[in-house]
């Protein structure tokens, strides 16, 4: 930046060259500082305008892409539904829709609050917690000090019947879903069918696990009970032998 000669006063001409050089530099800094605020504000306004245009373009592009995605998904869903309905006219199509609707309804009722599946699983967890409490108390010989039983009983025939009925019903639903034609996994129909199938398989797996745990625990309890009978029989036998030997010692 050059300083116009008119700005330099005549009184400064007699000053040394280094002083005049410093004055010119200071004057440059003064001019730059006085104009920087205006330049910075102009830059900010320009940046805001540029970013506003960029964000506006991105928003329009996002809306466009979302619309394209929605249309593409609609086409996939329609195509999947058409393929699912292929070779199914009249009563057959109604049967497929009825099977799918029944599966959704039964799974929702069984797995929901108060459903057969929820109540069966909850009953098992309650029984298991009580069984663990009894077994833990038995280790520390605290069963005689409480009103708890000293052994673990089976959950009961009612629970066993509910388990059997529930497993049969879920198995039937699995067969019904397999009888339905599969749909594209990327479509809503395909995802619903896959989700229902996986959910039923998970429910059956959990019921099998519960039944296995219950059977194993009862088997361990019966083994413990047999050991207690053997131990009690040995104690009674030893007491009888001690009673029979006592008169001989006195004589």
Give me the secondary-structure topology.
Layout (H helix, E strand, L loop, with lengths): L16 H68 L6 H21 L4 H24 L17 H23 L8 H63 L1
Overview of the molecule:
The structure is a single chain. With 251 residues, this protein is mostly helical. The chain has 5 helices and no strands. It has helices spanning 17-84, 91-111, 116-139, 157-179, 188-250.
Compact summary:
The protein contains five helices and no strands. The chain is mostly helical.
User: Alpha-carbon distance between the termini?
Assistant: 137 Å
Shape: elongated
Fraction of residues in helix: over 70%
Average pLDDT over all residues: 78
β-strand number? 0
Characterize the biggest β-sheet.
Answer: none
What structural category do the secondary elements indicate? mainly alpha
The number of helices is 5
Q: Stretches where pLDDT falls below 50 for ≥5 residues?
A: none
User: How large a portion of the residues is in β-strands, by DSSP E?
Assistant: under 5%
Radius of gyration: 44 Å
User: Helix-strand pattern, N to C?
Assistant: HHHHH
């Amino acid at each position: 930046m050059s300083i116009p000669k008119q700005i330099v006063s005549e009184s400064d001409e007699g000053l040394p060259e280094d002083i005049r050089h410093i004055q010119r530099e200071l004057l440059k800094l003064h001019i730059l500082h006085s104009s920087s605020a205006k330049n910075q504000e102009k830059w900010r306004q320009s940046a805001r305008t540029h970013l506003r245009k960029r964000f506006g373009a991105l928003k329009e592009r996002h809306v466009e892409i979302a619309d394209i995605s929605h249309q593409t998904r609609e086409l996939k869903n329609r195509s999947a539904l058409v393929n699912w309905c292929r070779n199914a006219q009249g009563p057959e199509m109604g049967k497929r829709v009825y099977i799918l609707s029944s599966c959704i309804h039964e799974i929702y009722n069984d797995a929901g609050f108060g459903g057969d599946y929820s109540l069966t699983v909850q009953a098992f967890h309650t029984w298991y917690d009580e069984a663990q409490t009894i077994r833990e108390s038995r280790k520390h010989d605290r069963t005689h000090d409480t009103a708890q039983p000293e052994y673990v009983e089976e959950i009961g025939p009612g629970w066993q019947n509910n388990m059997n009925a529930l497993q049969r019903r879920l198995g039937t639903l699995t067969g019904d879903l397999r009888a339905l034609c599969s749909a594209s996994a990327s479509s809503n129909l395909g995802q619903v069918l896959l989700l229902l199938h996986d959910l039923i398989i998970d429910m059956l797996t959990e019921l099998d696990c519960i039944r296995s745990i219950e059977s194993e625990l009862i088997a361990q309890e019966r083994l413990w009970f047999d050991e207690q009978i053997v131990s009690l029989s040995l104690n009674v036998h030893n007491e009888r032998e001690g009673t029979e030997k006592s008169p001989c010692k006195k004589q």
